[in-house]
Amino acid sequence: MRRTDSPSRRAAAVTAAVALTAATAALVAAQPASAATGCRVDYSIGSQWPGGFGANLVVTNLGDAVSGWRLSWAFPGDERITQSWNGTHAQSGAQVTATNAAWNGGIATGGTVSFGFNATSGSRPATPSSFTLNGVVCTGSTTTTTTTTTTTTTTTTSQSPQPDRPMVENNFPVTREGAYGDNRYTVFRPSNPQAVGRPLPVLAFGNGACAHTDNSEVTRALTFIASKGFVVVDTGSVNGSPNGVPSGSPIPSLLTDAITWAEREHNRSASPLAQRLDLTRVATAGHSCGGLEALVAAQDRRVDAVASLNSGFFADGAFGYPRSELGKLHTPALFMDGGPSDVAYANNQANYDLVTVPAVLARQPQAGHGGFIGGSQMADGMTTVVQFLDMVLNGNQAARAYVLDPSGLASRAPWTVSRKNF
């Protein structure tokens, strides 16, 4: 999912296509073209509470395949959307327009896509009377339109664009260093950011036990992530020296401050990361207690994805964060645990069950509580994190297949994978 307040920020950061024109011959002809259009929208209200409700829309494309969708409708009353998932929304008065996320823009003929939201309402919510998909009224049937187009044929020789390379296939050398001007953080980054060939997404990471000085436990895992083309900003000084931050309890603002640090570095001319970061692709993640930090920090509107590893909000609201915090998430979420031997097993399951945003539950019962971070399951665990982030932040289809398709991670025993709202 992309930020609900800025859908345009989800355009691809870099595309590579080099065309060398050898000879051009213009052939102009008027040709008729036909296109079938049609759609159906199933609108359902899943839950209601005093002053609000949650709804889900399933759009079925009855016409020709579309690449990129825009669904519009008018509320019959005073409904105002407060949170949405599987896309972005804009509302002016009663009029609403929802647009696709990076990963669900294509709808094949007969295919479906879902969009959901929570909203306020001063009265009993009612179903909108009509919907349009890309300007076409959804009547449940199709129509065929014929247009005349003028075609200019150009003969060129070109270098074919490279396929959308999954980030997990990268293996860049990594530099681990203290954050410039802020000893609260350690930075893991590709040693030569320019060699990556694209702006670098940012990941703010919280350590297990909410360790805010020593990050040695996660060094191997975060080096793995950075080698794939991420800049990871981790809580903890680079050499374990005191940095004035107490450990043992969640401080989510450390992760949001890490994002702010990245924004400054992007604009600092002497920084090796100057103008090399993609600040439209930002995620939080964390292990155990650091996972709580990541889930709270993910409520920041700059964040586009969150990964909670062996973690979750407690039923009794321990550390001052009740499970109602999950209702504040606006991004897709990954929940990973190490099976019944993981002390966070029940919490992780309960948190996944409660979220209303698009979510993935990935479980490796041999990993226990620490296998993803420092055990023999580290490579598999961090690969899953990278693939999830690549799917959500970049819309990479190969990563999406790895995370969501039965032939992907779910086929790699003993992993089990569940998903919802994707």
TrEMBL record:
Asked if the Swiss-Prot or TrEMBL record annotates the protein with the keyword Signal, the reply is: yes
Q: Which InterPro entries match?
A: AB_hydrolase_fold, CBD2, CBM2/CBM3_carb-bd_dom_sf, CBM2_carb-bd_dom_sf, TAT_signal
Gene3D superfamilies named in the record = 2.60.40.290, alpha/beta hydrolase
- Signal peptide, first to last residue: 1-35
Keyword set, alphabetical order? Signal
- Composition bias type Low complexity, residue spans: 143-157
Q: Quick one: where's region Disordered?
A: 143-169
Q: Where is the CBM2 domain?
A: 32-141
Q: Does the keyword Signal apply?
A: yes
Q: Which domain of life is it from?
A: Bacteria
Q: Which protein are we looking at?
A: Cellulose-binding domain-containing protein
- Species this protein is from: Saccharothrix xinjiangensis
